[in-house]
Amino acid sequence: MTPTLTNTGAFIARARKARRLTQRELADLSNVSYSTLTKVEQGVLPAGPSVIGALARALSVPVTELTGQPYLDELRQDQLDGLIQPIREALNIYDLGPDPDVVPRSVTDLEAHAEELCALVRATHIKKVAAELPGLIAEVTTTAHVRGEDRSWRLLAGTYRTAYDVTAKLGFPDLCTVALDRMDWAAQRASDAVVGAMRQYLRALTYLRASDYQTGKRLVRLGMVQLEQAAASRVRDVVAGQIHLGAAVLAGRDKDEAGAEGHLAEAQRLADITGPAEQVHWLSFGPTNVGAHRVSVLAELDRYPEAVRTADKMRIPDDWPPSRLAHHYAEVARAQLWTGSTEAAFKSLGKARKLAPQQTRYSPTVRETYAGLESAKRRMPETFSNYGAWLGM
């Protein structure tokens, strides 16, 4: 199969040639086997997150340069590209004080709007959230500067967290970082240890996506230390449990099996205490999320058959957030591909698309899995090529 410009293998080959490295030299620098590298560049083998991360580090480029993010052509088709700049501008007014041209609603109304946008993110209505978010940030920024109370600063931190959610799903890591910096700035003014710890967790996820696992682990530890400053409560347990889940995936991708299992066990202990807590800080935490993360960790550890079996045994509630469920199906599809279950993998990709079309379209995991299915040269349903056209591949 000849790699196309939308194939990660083509981006890797282009970056390698720009640095005048042979495939053998890059394989030695990255500790990725020569056989794996050549197959990835040829489009014969899908590039997993750990392989992409190792190659990005060896080439001294961001992971997004090798995955092709953000997917600008698709963003333009979905009319999402024009929504990014207003979010960027809204993030930049944080320290300018109250805007005389903004007449904000009551704090109660602003809180209700912020909660609505959080719910819409979990329901995967990304375009609607992206359109409304800049105006909300402007109102809350003015309110926080005028009132100066913890409640307003906490609300502002929450709007920045939503900005992080949107930009992360659309593949803009630079804006993710800015949003998290703003979240920390507001959380400090709110004197909220839980929000501050959650920000460290989200920051760790950005380093996970960038394949910098050691920094991610350090941020997890900082988040746990910060969380200890908060009073004991169900909310604190939920955030602690979610941090352990993020730490488990970091450890799994770093091939630290013992560390991953330890974090999963602690998350399970906390989930048994909290029960389903999907709407606590909109983290989707609870027993179901622990199970989904176990599938992810097993896949990161290359234990794909076990990941598929674990997924098959899961019983997912009907009201589980669509965004989280779509992400789960994308992870399951990747594991199914590696076990040779190509038809099942494509069905899982279809489920992800149905649940969260915009989120799925911009998922590197979905794109790599689709590329792997295409290169498997198995007979696929007629809808397979339509799916690829929708992805822009």
- Domain count: the total is 4
Q: What composes the largest sheet?
A: none
Beta-strand fraction estimate: under 5%
Number of separate helices: 22
Form type: globular
**Unreliable residue runs:** 1-6
Give the number of DSSP strands.
Answer: 0
Assembly type: single chain
Order of helices and strands: HHHHHHHHHHHHHHHHHHHHHH
What does this structure look like?
The chain folds into four domains: 1-68, Orthogonal Bundle (434 Repressor (Amino-terminal Domain)), CATH 1.10.260; 72-191, no CATH class; 192-304; 321-393, no CATH class. Helices cover 74% and strands 0% of the residues. It has helices spanning 8-18, 23-30, 34-42, 49-59, 63-67, 72-77, 81-91, 107-122, 126-147, 150-170, 173-190, 193-209, 213-227, 234-253, 257-274, 287-300, 304-313, 322-338, 342-355, 357-361, 364-375, 383-391. Helix 8 (107-122) runs parallel beside helix 10 and helix 9 runs antiparallel to helix 10. The protein is globular, with a radius of gyration of 21 Å. The two termini are 13 Å apart.
Please outline the helices and strands:
Blueprint: H1 8-18, H2 23-30, H3 34-42, H4 49-59, H5 63-67, H6 72-77, H7 81-91, H8 107-122, H9 126-147, H10 150-170, H11 173-190, H12 193-209, H13 213-227, H14 234-253, H15 257-274, H16 287-300, H17 304-313, H18 322-338, H19 342-355, H20 357-361, H21 364-375, H22 383-391
Helix pairs in contact: 1-3, 2-4, 7-9, 8-9, 8-10, 9-10, 10-11, 10-12, 11-12, 12-13, 12-14, 13-14, 14-15, 14-16, 15-16, 16-17, 16-18, 17-18, 18-19, 18-21, 19-21
